[in-house]
TrEMBL record:
InterPro entries: ATPase_NBD, ROK. It comes from the Bacteria. It comes from Opitutus terrae (strain DSM 11246 / JCM 15787 / PB90-1). This is ROK family protein. NCBIfam families: PolPhglucPhase. It holds the Pfam family ROK.
Amino acid sequence: MKTLGIDIGGSAVKGAPVDPRTGRLLAPRLRIATPEPLTPLAMSRAVAEIARHFRWRGRIGVGFPGVVQGSRTLTSANLHPRFVGCDAGRLFAQATGCRVALINDADAAGLAEVTFGAGRRVQGTVLLVTIGTGIGTAVFSGGRLLPNTELGHLPWHGRSAERYVSSAARKRRGLSWASWARELGEYLRTLERLLWPELIVLGGGASSKSDKFIRHVRCRAKLVVASSGNEAGIVGAALCAAEPG
């Protein structure tokens, strides 16, 4: 059964049909830039545009950058504040006319990596960190997800950690890749002291430029780049939609 995976980010919405048996994208992804924070209604129109582009009539999985419980979004750090307490799943379903499953975006990326990628068959703790407009985290133990960890908002030097170590923060602060990577390593070592992962997987938009910084990151656990790169969120959202129920 094919499913449509949609990944909502701080600067764009991306989607593509996916074969959930293999994790393979079945068509080139469609990316819609969102330079300004969209209201939930406007975001639902962007989601519907992706569904129309692929002439979609089946299940849709949507990865959202915030805490997700059921079909509701409870936080919205990098999107419109009206998403807080919004029944986004219902809104997206109404806009597309399709059945929609909602999942935290980092959890979606982690699900893709644990199922098909770098975290496959790892029985210990796997920490996935997505680096883009913000910082997302997903934690798996024995292949099982602990939902909505959201450790990108861990207090760090008096502010949310993503204000210092996200890709957007690197650009805003004018840091070189090496200087930023050393701060990223400090942040990852803090997460290690909390979780003691055996494997840390880096995903998100910055993962496509890992050759510029990963050699400067120091941590205890094995550190790898997400096998699905920046498409992990799309794949994981599609996997969420393919689950029974």
